[in-house]
Amino acid sequence: MTATKGRRAKPRLIRRRIRFQGRVFRVEQDRVRLPNGRTAVLDIVRHGGSVVLIAQPSPQSVVLIRQFRYAIDKWIWELPAGSIESGETPGRAARRECEEEIGLTPRRISRAGALYPTPGFCDEIMFFYRCTGLVKPTRRVKVDPDEQIEPRVLSLREAGRLVERGEIVDMKTILGLGLIRP
């Protein structure tokens, strides 16, 4: 391996093309020169980041949502989550998404972690937040028109059984539940 100033050398960008620009993400195609001198073409999904909510009405319970995921053609159980809007902090996004997805405002949020779910082709980072002290919002909350969400409060034991039975297939949810399990 080639090293530069005590660090491993990184690929160098030769050319970037935007192949797709959507509402949630952008796809770029980069031509790069690798440290070994060869060139490669890499497709990268650019995403502004997201928040995953571990909403707990009590220390022994969690709110999961059931929604249809078109990409996999299934209704699934998952932790509420959503994209960080431009100019928004992850903490603010967590509060907003909690209101939008489950109809409750957290009095307290605390960051539980941050992870890259698919760093091989995507730069999205997911910020996990524990949300507690859940109350009804004082204002009317807008709901995304493309979402059909059914929130439900489950005991941590019930959620764990759904994971064990293979009824929760969403990786962020399994990981998020693991962050709060004793």
Can you describe what's shown?
The protein is α+β, with helices and mostly antiparallel strands. The protein is built from 3 helices and 12 strands. A 4-stranded mixed beta sheet has the order 9-6-11-10, sandwiched between helices. Strands 3-4-5 form a 3-stranded antiparallel beta sheet, with no helix packed on it. A 3-stranded antiparallel beta sheet has the order 8-7-12. The protein is elongated. It starts with a strand and ends with a helix. The mean pLDDT is 92.
Rg, Cα atoms, Å:
19 Å
Annotation, overall tally of beta strands: 12
Beta-strand residue fraction: over 45%
As a percent range, the share of helical residues equals: 10-25%
**Number of helical segments with 4 or more residues:** 3
Overall mean confidence score, pLDDT:
92
Low-confidence stretches: none
Query: What can be said about the biggest beta sheet?
Result: 4 strands, mixed
> What is the string of helix and strand elements?
EEEEEEEEEHEEEHH
Sum up the overall morphology in one term. Answer: elongated
How does the helix and strand content classify structurally? alpha+beta
Q: Distance between the terminal alpha carbons, to the nearest Å? A: 42 Å
Strand order of the largest sheet: 9-6-11-10
